[in-house]
Structure formats: structure tokens, C-alpha cells
Amino acid sequence: MNQTKAKGFGARGIILIIVLFLGFFTFQTFTNYPLNILADLYGGSTTVAAIMSAGTFIGIAIQLILSRFIGKIKSIKKVASIFAIIAVVCCWIEAAMPFYLTSVWYVVYFIVNLTVTIYALFFLSIIAGQWFPRRKGTIMGISTIAYPFCNGVIGFFASAVFKGENPAIFSSFLPFLIAATVGVVLFLVCITDYPEQCGAYRDNDKSFTPEKAKAMLEQEIEDKRTTVWTTGHTLGCRDFWCIAVTCGLILMTAVGTMTQTSTIIGYFPNLNYTIIMMVIAVFGAIGSWLLGVIDTAIGTKKSMMICVILMVISGLLGIAATASGVGALVVLSLVLLAMFMGASSNYTVSAAVQYWRREDFACVFACVNPIANIFNALAPTLTAALLYSGAQGVNVSAVFIMITVAGVIGVVLMLVFSAKHVKAVDDKYRTAAGKPLDDALVGRK
């Protein structure tokens, strides 16, 4: 007898959300904090940003290589575990190493950026899509609250580091190190490639029997192995590029700006950094959840369109703030940016699940994520270059001009994107491969 459809996420699903949250938390903390708060100890923002970008770029190259045979990897979890262990070990070393061992610290920081990018932003996101294909927007919307949460506590971290005569780096990082380690342990012990492998169900949907779930899983694994959406086909699709570039622009503006909040907020002398970052955290959490709910309810394209419109408004408010010197405007600008900050890692998963078949998800995501993260890799260096491009000091307005331009480009790309065109291309590839046509992609919103 069929079981009833369950509400909620299930016990294992909740653990997966925690693992995702702590994965994004680890990424944000151990890549962002050294750049945003500690850069002066390690050669300055430009140097640290370049190392962060280099590590991310190598991680992207590895993702693109993996994309060519991602469907043939028998266990994403096993490969992800290797990167997770290396990442968390290097996070401990990064925090414990004396700041005057600069050259060695550069190497460790590079490895952290490389491994945590692949673990948290790539492999964990694939597993999330395999566990919650229909509810991916909600799941990622909750998990990516980690980004604004980190920005909310960054002010307290900065205060803790510099409260004494000597920088207290390790003790200030210790709570974050424990959280990162807990996340990796939970992943290793509790999470499998597919929910059926640990007695759970996709989307926590128990409306079918265990036997039917097992049969569906076996069929999906086979279909994934023979997917028509190869790397070449994916990169040749117009709509793929609309999605990938827009996701990249969202990442670039959110990540880039948040790595320089201390300088941007400091440009307005009457603003309190710690309080503003807490406000950003609150609205960022609301935005991450809300955009995820909108994604699930009315579609990924509409949710992304709202996101890029917020980006345009944020940029314009920031330009107005620097021109007028009104601090309230820059606070509002950063609040709007925070609203879509978490979504920056949501849509790479969501769009790949929403507009392609379930069995094609891993291959499409393995392309969209690294392409989007090229923008992520450029973000710290580009933002730092723009910020310090002023002849007589920092050029804060240049950062907000970048945000505005990126938002306008995103709006245009979202108007061009068409789910119906993805279906037409899918039909063409399936016909050429001798696979049957169906209505699986009809009506994707």
C-alpha cells in the first residue's frame, strides 16, 4: 500500500539542510574574513584578493574537467568527502598559523579557496539537487541564509581579533572552525548520494513504495550515464548561457561587495559597521528564504528576474549615496544587495533542476556552476581594483556602478531566456540519440 505524501523535509533532509548551511558557512568564513578583515596582516586587500581568485579559478577548472564525466561518477559523496576533509583541515591550519608566516599562509589560503569551493559550492549543491529536485528553491533558500548570517557576525569577529595588543586570530576563528568540522562530520556520517540509499525519499515524498523508489533510482542512474546533455551540448545552448551568466553576475556583485564592506561602510563616517552588518544579516536571511520560496512557487526565471531588478535598484541607491554623502542610502543599497546575496548560490542549482530533466541535472549543473563561479573568482579582485581606483582615495561609486550595469545585463538575459527553447533543444538532442520524446519539460515555469 502506498504511503502518504509527507510534509516537511524529513529527518535526513533536515540534516542535509544543516550540512548545506555549514558548507556555505565554511566557504564564506574562511575565504571572506581573511580578505575583508585580516588582509592588512597578509600583504593587503589586492594581494589576498588575487590569491582568493586564483584558488577559485583552479577549482573552476577542476569542475569543468569533472563536468565531462560527472554522470559516470558512481558516488559524488565519496569524491566530495576527499575535498571536504582537505578543506576543513586547511581551515584549521589557516587559523592557527602565525600571521607573520605570510608565504606559507598564502599556500594554505589558496588550498582552502580551491577545496571549499569544490566541496561546498559544487558537490554539496549536486547532492541537494538529487535529494530535493522539486523543492530545490526552498531547500537552497534556507541553506544559503548562511551567507547573510556570516556577514552578521563579521563585526563581532573583527572586534574579537583586535581586542588585545596582538591579533587573536585562532581564538576568534575557533567557533567557526568547530562549526565547519561539525558540518563535515555530519556529511560523512549521515548523507548519501541519493535519499533512497538511506531509507529516505526524493523531496521527502512518501507517496510511493520503497520498491518503486528503488526502481526509479536505478533508472535515473542509468539515464544520467547516457544523458544527451553532454558538456559540448550544454555549452552550445543559448539558454544555458543566459542562466550561467546571470548567476555569475549575481555572485560577482554579492560576493565582491561583501568582501569590501568594511571599506565601503567606513567611507560614511557616521555609520556603525557592526550594527549595519547585523541589519544586512537579518534582511539577507529574509531575502534568501523569500526568493527560495518564490522560486519554488512561481518559477526560477521569475525569481531570478526579481533578483536582478533588486540588483539594479541597489546599484542606483549606492551611486546616489556616494554622490550625496547620505549614509542611509548606502545602508538601504546594501540591504537590497543582501536580499539576493544568499540567492547567489541558489540559482545555479535551481535553474539546472528546473529547466532540464532530473537525470540531466548533474551534467548541466557541472557546467553552469563553474561558469558562474568564474565571475565569483573575479569578484574580489575586480571589486578591490574598482574600489581603490580613485586618484584621491577610495572610489566607492565605481563599485555601485558595476552593480547597476551587472543588474541591467541580468535583466536582458532573463528576458532572452526561454524554457520552451530548452525543450526544443532537448527534443533535438534526444531525437539524434534515438531516445523517445515526451512532455517532461513542458510547462516548466
Class by SSE composition: mainly alpha
Unreliable spans are: none
Order of helices and strands: HHHHHHHHHHHHHHHHHH
In helices, the fraction of residues equals over 70%
Mean pLDDT: 87
Q: What best-fitting shape do the alpha-carbon axes yield?
A: globular
Number of helices: 18
Task: Give the assembly state of these chains.
Answer: single chain
> Into which percentage range does the β-strand content fall?
under 5%
Question: Mind telling me the C-alpha Rg?
Answer: 21 Å
Which sheet architecture does the biggest sheet show? none
Distance separating the two termini: 33 Å
Q: What is the total tally of β strands?
A: 0
Task: Write the SSE topology.
Blueprint: H1 10-36, H2 45-67, H3 76-96, H4 102-131, H5 136-143, H6 146-161, H7 169-190, H8 210-225, H9 231-235, H10 238-258, H11 261-266, H12 273-298, H13 300-324, H14 327-339, H15 347-355, H16 361-387, H17 396-416, H18 419-432
Helix pairs in contact: 1-2, 1-4, 1-5, 1-6, 1-7, 2-4, 2-16, 3-4, 3-7, 4-15, 4-16, 5-12, 6-7, 6-12, 10-13, 10-16, 10-17, 12-13, 12-14, 13-14, 13-17, 15-16
